[in-house]
Amino acid sequence: MSTPLDPQLFTTISQYDIDKRYKYLIKEVVKTQLIWILTDEHGCVMLNTDDEDCVPVWPNKEFAQAWATGDWESCKAKEIDLKKWHSHWTHGLEDDELAIVVFPNLEEDGLVVYPDELDYELKVQAKKARNHQKR
């Protein structure tokens, strides 16, 4: 279960640029062991860029749920355990030739990465966190 995000912190983080949101997502996902997507009756919500079909991911329920407006108002934020992400989602997205748009803001601005890139960054951050705890 994740801790609700303070509204003031939500506003502050929402104003981060792409790179800072990416770094926040990596650290937050490793800390909480959860990554968030949006789903509807058809499955996972998808976004399209000029070059890629993408699955958007968020670091907290509140950011994912903030996207559930307009055409997506029936969507629900869904948490995915980080272990399940590593074991199922990364390979599944690669097999389906899908990219990931990391922590898009409400203007649909987010960094597009490949599943193996995100997986690698999450594992590097987890190793850093474990090393930091040993000190």
UniProtKB/TrEMBL annotation:
Name the InterPro entries for this protein: DUF2750 (IPR021284)
In this record, what's one Pfam family? DUF2750
Top-rank lineage group of the source organism: Bacteria
Q: What is this protein called?
A: DUF2750 domain-containing protein
